[in-house]
Amino acid sequence: MFTDTATSTAGTVLENFIVRDEDLPEFKDLEFEDINQLHLDHPGANDTEYRTRRDYIASLAKRFRETGEITDVDYTDEEQGIWRHVAGRLEELHEQHASPFYLQAKHDLGITTERIPQLTEMNRRLKELTGFRLAPIEGLVETRGFLSLLSYRTMLSTQYIRHHSRPDYTPEPDIVHEAIGHIPMFTNPSFADYSQFVGLGAKIATDEQLEELGRLYWFTVEFGLVQHEGDVKAYGAGLLSSYGELEHAFSDEVDRRPFNLEEVINHDYTYSDMQPVLYVIPSYAELKEVTKRYIESFQK
Ligand SMILES: [Fe+2]
């Protein structure tokens, strides 16, 4: 399904940014990483009530894959409380360190510190702004499947929220990471096109190129910094959804280097550590352009 590119070279598909509903792939064959059980070190691993709730929210994502319809989650007071706690604390740091585009986008999408936003409402705004869309998922899927969906201007998004015992921590993506970290940036036309290029690349990449794309994604979509009027600001989801990471990114412990695609795609990182090196893009448009040229070099 994700390998059925209609074209044999990247170059010919890179011009088409519009994805109609009827162009979307089937979601049924997505391959999941081994996440059926919460890892033992997950704060909710031994909480039966939490696990039951997670299973219920997972059933909504499964239903989406059968019907194509997204079901809104009836978040509980406790879940809303976790959101208010985390979103409220992040808000102050965002004012200081987040990219101005991101701050505006969060506002435009109606993402507030008051309540957990629904994928359906964010989808309505995204459709108007860049034609990007969110599809619910209950956990991590394989890299190629996840990245390839970006070629359809589609991001898989979790809906569940982290465990109440550790509201400042999650070992996996949750709705805080998605809605505060990832989703606002998809309202940026250049960033949306850039994401689509990464997706188009993932569909035709060799295994080695897929690893390169994974590193590019990591140092941009997750941990990216951007120039803004002589200053450096954050736009990466891993930074914007974690106060620890965001504070660290602007500390003296981090080497903030100018973005260089060749260096980034070859830069190994450790998933679980704070990042000692981050890359600063000059602009989202520039990121899109260098990535386009890079993807066009695939299969030549
Ligand atoms: Fe992420």
Characterise the protein shown here.
This protein has 300 residues and is of the alpha/beta class. The strands form two sheets. A four-stranded mixed β-sheet has the order 4-3-6-5. Strands 1-2 form a two-stranded parallel sheet. The protein is globular, with a radius of gyration of 18 Å. It starts with 47 loop residues before the first helix and ends with a helix. The relative contact order is 0.14. The N terminus is likely disordered. It binds fe (ii) ion. Fe (ii) ion binds next to helix 6.
Question: Helices, strands, pairings?
Answer:
Blueprint: H1 48-67, H2 77-97, H3 100-108, H4 119-129, E1 133-136, H5 143-149, E2 154-157, H6 175-182, H7 189-204, H8 207-222, E3 225-228, E4 231-234, H9 237-240, H10 243-249, E5 255-258, H11 261-265, E6 277-281, H12 284-296
Parallel strand pairs: 1-2, 3-6, 5-6
Antiparallel strand pairs: 3-4
Helix pairs in contact: 5-7, 7-8, 7-12
Order the strands across the largest sheet as they lie in space: 4-3-6-5
- Main beta-sheet strand count, sense and barrel state: 4 strands, mixed
Q: How many H/I helical runs?
A: 12
Total count of strands: 6
Shape: globular
Quick recap:
The protein is an alpha/beta fold and 300 residues long.
List keywords for this structure.
single chain, 300 residues, alpha/beta, four-stranded mixed sheet, two-stranded parallel ribbon, 12 helices, disordered N terminus, binds fe (ii) ion
